[in-house]
Design a protein that fits this description.
single chain; about 220 residues; alpha/beta; Rossmann fold; five-stranded parallel sheet; globular; cytoplasm; Cytidylate_kin; nucleotide-binding; Cytidylate kinase
């Protein structure tokens, strides 16, 4: 039996993380936020005063990554965002983390969210979703998230940083942020979390044969 892998890609604050976690819960599948791997590598570099663009240092930290690094509470925020984007552009870092991601998905199936799951990590995944929203809406969501955590931030600055990261992620030569050719696009600009989830779940049901319901945990349609 081939493990069910669902790839959920998209830019920051599009809602892909919330959506992927809900899908994993509904389908009784493990969930992995692959962005945390790159954030943790970036944070390890920042802790040591190293430049996240230093390929040799970043690769060494990627190879030294431990599960405890993913549990840190400082993997979010502008500094971590940009450091993650910088290390993600380094081919050797991506190579060091690729097998880790694939092993996670192949063990029991999984829902993985990131930026290159459907294009690089699991190009043969039976379900690929690309979740996006307008830059203005994504910036507003991130701004509200930061405020909720007590972080002072100007909306205009948050949007500028988000656009800069979008450009960095989309313009890198290795695994750039883009939808897989066979991915289904979900624009969450005007969707709340429940509507986005229902849309995604319907797409999963349409892609997975009904006779696989019992072995994948896929809930039957009402």
């Amino acid at each position: 039996m081939t493990a069910l892998v669902i790839a959920v890609d998209g830019p920051a604050a599009a809602g892909k993380g919330t959506l992927a976690r809900r899908l994993a819960d509904a389908l009784s599948l493990p969930y992995l936020d692959t962005g945390l791997l790159y954030r943790a590598v970036g944070r390890r570099l920042l802790d040591g005063g190293a430049d996240p663009r230093d390929a040799e240092a970043a690769t060494a930290q990627a190879r030294a990554l431990t599960p405890a690094d993913l549990a840190r509470n400082d993997l979010r925020g502008p500094a971590a965002d940009m450091a993650a984007s910088a290390v993600a552009a380094i081919p050797a870092v991506r190579a060091a983390l690729l097998d880790w991601q694939r092993d996670f998905g192949r063990q029991h199936g999984a829902v993985l969210d990131g930026r290159d799951i459907g294009t690089v990590v699991f190009p043969d995944a039976p379900v690929k979703l690309f979740v996006s929203a307008s830059p203005e809406e994504r910036a507003r969501r991130r701004w509200l998230e930061l405020r909720g955590r007590g972080v002072a931030a100007e909306l205009a600055q948050v949007e500028a940083e988000m656009r800069a990261r979008d450009a960095q992620d989309s313009g890198r030569s290795v695994a750039p942020l883009k939808p897989a050719a066979d991915a289904t696009l979900i624009d969450t600009t005007s969707l709340d979390a429940d509507a986005a989830f229902e849309t995604a779940l319907a797409l999963v049901r349409a892609r997975i044969p009904l006779d696989s319901t019992a072995r994948t945990g896929l809930p039957a349609p009402p």
